[in-house]
Amino acid sequence: MADRQAVFMTLYKKCFPSVAHYIAKRGGTLDEAEDVFQDALLAFYEKTRESQLHLAQDEGAYVFGIARYLWKKRYHEHQRQTSLDELMAGYWEDQENEWSQPAEQQVVAQRVVRVLQAAGQQCMRLLTAFYYEKLDMVEIASRFGFSGARSATAQKFKCLQKVKQLVRQKSLQYEDFVE
Amino acid sequence: MKISLNEWQQRENCLLGNASGEQQALFEARQLLDLEFREAVHWQRAAYTAIRACGRTQLRGELKQIHQTLFTTLEHRTFAEKIRAFFRK
């Protein structure tokens, strides 16, 4: 986790000036530049984790490309309310590489983020390490102090079942409420 | 419906695109034929979506913290000044 923060600090210092300059030239504000840049970093991170993509030299250009795309979509085409996933689906399609969630799933996710805290902080950290950071079970065992990949896998299974129950309970309550 | 770690893993492979073509076809077929299975798969998929949203929220918080550090600490004053200068009319 500390490694990730160090990587992002380096990326921030390296790439934010060019993105901020680009947005300032087009009449944007520092807050808008911050929003666009952070979304670009998120999209970049998720893409590299999903595809195990390694960009040794061009990461700055890559992040800048995403930020420019997001700026145009959000502030020129006035799609400020469009989710990051929906915007990026178009971007990745252009590059023969798509990953997007159906809108219905996004709604479910947003609603339950707070609820999932009930699964416990340790569980959520473990699950996001595996499913979001894409660490393997050996790395997870080491980070969380398990004796090995096997016990980390067993714990992940228990945590997932907890989360599934929470998502299910909350969604059923919500559906009951709105119908 | 209680399931084994093995079965959960098989479903996960199918949902996350890590299954063979044959496993995937069987998985799709079972969803068509078995309502209870289909519902369980739906919630398993929703759990992954929710975990991903949590991961993203956590990372977004880390990025905001980095931004805050760069724009409020003496150590990075030159960097912050350079950026702010872009936005002065």
Quantity of strands of chain A, as a count: 0
Q: Please give the radius of gyration of chain B in angstroms.
A: 23 Å
Radius of gyration of chain A (CA) equals 19 Å
Q: Name the poorly predicted regions of chain B.
A: none
Distance from N terminus to C terminus of chain B (CA atoms, Å) equals 63 Å
Largest beta-sheet details of chain B: none
- Say how many strands of chain B there are: 0
| Amino-to-carboxy terminus distance of chain A | 42 Å
Helix coverage percent of chain A: over 70%
Shape of chain A: globular
Residue share in helix of chain B:
over 70%
Mean pLDDT of chain A: 80
Give the H and E element order of chain B: HHHH
Tally of structural domains of chain B: 1
Please report which band the strand proportion of chain B falls in: under 5%, 5-15%, 15-25%, 25-35%, 35-45% or over 45%. Answer: under 5%
For the biggest sheet of chain A, the summary is: none
Helix/strand class of chain A:
mainly alpha
What count of domains describes the coordinates of chain A?
2
Q: How many H/I helical runs of chain A?
A: 8
Q: Helix/strand/pairing class of chain B, anyone? A: mainly alpha
Q: What report would you give on this structure?
A:
The complex is a heterodimer of chains A (179) and B (89). Chain A has 179 residues and is mainly α. Chain A has two domains: 2-94, no CATH class; 103-178. Chain A contains eight helices and no strands. Chain A has helices at residues 2-25, 30-51, 59-76, 84-94, 103-112, 121-131, 137-144, 149-178. The longest helix of chain A is centred in the C-terminal third of the chain and has 30 residues, at 149-178. The termini of chain A are far apart. Chain B is mainly α and 89 residues long. Chain B starts with a helix and ends with a helix. The model of chain B has no long low-confidence stretch (mean pLDDT 91). The interface between A and B is large, with 46 and 33 residues.
